[in-house]
Amino acid sequence: MKDASLCRDAGGNQMKIVSITMSVLILFAMAASLKALPPDETLPNIRCESMRAIGWSYTFLPSTFTAGDTVTIKYRLVNDSSVSAGPFQVGLRVGGTIVDRNAVAELVNGGEDSGEFIWTAVCGVPVEVVADCDSAVAESNEDDNVMTDPGLECSQPNLALRNTSFSGTDPSRVKAGLYYRFAARVYGETATSRNVRVTGGVVGGAVLLDRTLAVMNPGDNETVDFTWEVPEGSSRIYIHVDPDNTITESNEGDNRWELAVTGVAISTSEERYDLSLKLNKMPGLRPVGAKLLVPAGRALTISGKFRGATGAIRDVTIVGVVKVKGNPPQKVYSTTIHHIESLVVPFSFSWTPTQLGETTISVQVSPGPYATSRGVRDSNPANNTDSIKVTVTKPKPLLRKM
Q: Global pTM?
């Protein structure tokens, strides 16, 4: 009896093993049959058929897009099932976030729908069109709802400040009370930038420069500058391109320039001009003997250049005086030139003689009112004046045709 019981137990165990094996085989068979089943035709299938990114002008290729460009994203959807779908939303997904949506009321079985999104290009993020972006519709296939344009590329521009300068020689010892010029050159690199704002001035103080450059193409450059009357003591000035950071750049580290400036009080004896002026020869006038003959009523252009007001940006006054022999002198021209920084500064004015006789045209340059108010003097006034002598004659009578 003992042996028979053991046999039954052994036989029972064998039956259990066979039962478990059959169950596993049945499960595998069921799984295989499920895979072989066609998609559930009771559910719709919204498929994103195509996506194409084009420029606003519909003329340039995606590879030419730059950050900030206006891009039109066009797409087409199809419902390749026998069941209608809707309503649902089509989303524009940028960098993993839905940034815009289009509503579709219904996409009938076998139907198509197309639309577009307007996008301001940003570099370095994936851009996708997502059908049924909120998963409002149960579909037979959820894996064909997303489409991207493989040709969509974006180039980041770069703006750089270079060739920075100021009109003095030593920023740690600047003559207080005088104007100085601070300048830099803005360079466009890599790709086009639009509406480039540039500011400058005193750190923590007045804004003295605020310009907008409409377009900066790769290779473009533009000089920006401002003038500032340096006070006594320590200050910092700056020039900053894209201060609001509205343009995404490949390098944000070369957009700002700062300079420490120390204004030092100066005595009148330290601050002097050494002005010199020279008139040009008047074109079209031929000497007759030792005289330059000029017919009355003919306009003359008096021109020349002066030098000697450089260093700090300063001002000069130019005065033109005409003296006809036997008559008192008459001022015919006067102007003040501000913010001088060039080594040689040209000038010109026009004068028409009306009185006959020997005439002396004299032009003088001197420190302007701003420089004078700061106690600036000219160290050698003898070089400040130049003159030309002409003889004004009666105009020749016009010949009448017979």
A: 0.57
